[in-house]
TrEMBL record:
Organism per entry: Psylliodes chrysocephalus
Name of this protein: CHK kinase-like domain-containing protein
Pfam family, one: EcKL
Superkingdom of origin: Eukaryota
Gene3D superfamilies for the chain: 3.90.1200.10
Annotated ranges, domain CHK kinase-like: 123-319
Length: 407
């Protein structure tokens, strides 16, 4: 993967340099990610050095290969993320400041520059790694301290847009009018195509429980219900409540620790990769994140984590002088969770493979063949299928035992 910068990128970096007092400087570039770390773009580490000071940046640039751009919503993804950084987060910060909120949601990177030029879409962000933030090991379960920290921040994030929607609906609608619908939702996608894709994903789950007649029958009934759940019920206004992150796996969350020798509890975190953010239910982020990172013991204690999330969410709502029981009562959140757990399980059938694979097994999406579907390419083979099946089975059993699907 080349780390060579094009003229537009060089001009953006020079602009950043001048704005930060770097008149004469050297630029060093290095590869910023491995296969399996980032799917819709290229990460390049950039260091500006003027001999006295350094400025550490990360360039996130779009894939330019035509075959990839034809099958994946690359441009929409970059425009969406740029809009989040340069508009939504700015408005969110002002909205929190206007309400004199002390414990603000600010768990995102600083953006320096961006480009929306066709085939040259990019963002230039602060390099969080040099500030002590690091990724969780995606192959292992998160501990309770990390899970709790993330859920608390998601609660604060969701509360901002829900408070705005409740108290200043015109501001909310103007801010979100172009980002309500997910970038993957195609208006011309046929029902048969949707059903076909769901069935292709469910193959992974069926493989994980192939030795259990009971679980196979259960999963088949779930599969038959998913098209209506995902593409009809969960798209109704009842579930379009707030802006959500939408991409809640551990590679999009970075943690910092007060003591580098003790990484059991993070002191702060940053959420990255906002490319598929959209309007949805807070339960979407909760279920997605919680299901794929939790041990069986944590899953079985899910009600405690729901309450932890909701406490953070409700406290932030109250900071905007909103009554949680009026805006989004716990019983309603619980109802949403009961529906989104099935969707979360479905997502786990895609994401778990990516989490568990070795870097050399991850697909290179820039090499997609003509006509090959991006989402279909996620069904790649990995060596550690036993671990994959074990983790998927844990999720499936949890869904069944806790009656998130009744028939």
């Amino acid at each position: 993967m080349s780390t060579e910068l094009n003229k537009m990128q060089i001009d953006l970096i020079d602009k950043i340099a001048k704005e930060n007092g770097f008149m004469e400087y050297q630029v060093t570039t290095n590869k910023g990610s491995e296969k399996g770390d980032n799917f819709l773009g290229i990460l390049t580490l950039i260091t500006l050095d003027n001999g006295e000071n350094k400025l550490e940046l990360i360039l996130k640039s779009a894939q330019q290969k035509d075959t990839f751009r034809k099958v994946a919503p690359i441009r929409r993804a970059y425009l969406r993320e740029i809009y989040l950084y340069e508009n939504v987060f700015v408005v969110f910060k002002k909205y929190q400041d206007d309400h004199n909120i002390a414990d603000t949601f600010d768990c995102y990177a600083k953006i320096y520059e961006s480009s929306t030029v066709e085939e040259n879409e990019c963002l230039i962000l602060e390099n969080l790694k040099v500030k002590g933030y690091q990724l969780w090991n995606r192959k292992i379960y998160m501990n309770t301290e990390h899970i709790s920290a993330v859920l608390k921040e998601y609660g604060k994030f969701h509360a901002i847009s829900m408070a705005m929607r409740h108290k200043n609906v015109e501001l909310y609608e103007k801010l979100t009018e172009d980002i309500k619908v997910g970038i993957w939702l195609e208006k011309d996608e046929t029902w048969d195509a949707r059903v076909k894709y769901i069935k292709s994903v469910m193959v992974v789950g069926h493989e994980a429980v192939k030795d259990s007649t009971d679980l196979k029958e259960f999963l088949k009934k779930v599969e038959d219900s998913l098209p209506d759940l995902i593409h009809k019920e969960l798209r109704t206004p009842e579930y379009q409540q707030a802006l959500v992150h939408g991409d809640c796996w551990c590679n999009n969350i970075m943690f910092k620790y007060e003591n580098e020798l003790d990484k059991t509890k993070p002191s702060s975190l940053r959420i990255v990769d906002w490319q598929i953010s959209s309007e949805n239910s807070p339960a979407f982020d909760f279920c997605y994140f919680f299901l794929i990172h939790s041990t069986k013991e944590v899953l079985d204690d899910y009600q405690s984590y729901m309450k932890l999330y909701y406490e953070s969410f409700s406290q932030h709502l109250k900071s905007f002088d909103c009554d949680p029981n009026e805006v989004f009562p716990y019983a309603r959140f619980e109802k949403h969770v009961n529906r989104y757990m099935l969707y979360g399980m479905f997502i786990s059938f895609v994401i778990m493979r990516i989490m568990i694979c070795d870097s050399d097994e991850a697909p290179d999406f820039s090499q997609l063949a003509e006509g090959e579907a991006f989402l279909d390419s996620l069904h790649f083979k990995i060596k550690n299928t036993n671990l994959l099946n074990e983790r998927l089975r844990t999720v499936i059993v949890f869904i069944k035992e806790h009656n998130f699907f009744t028939y």
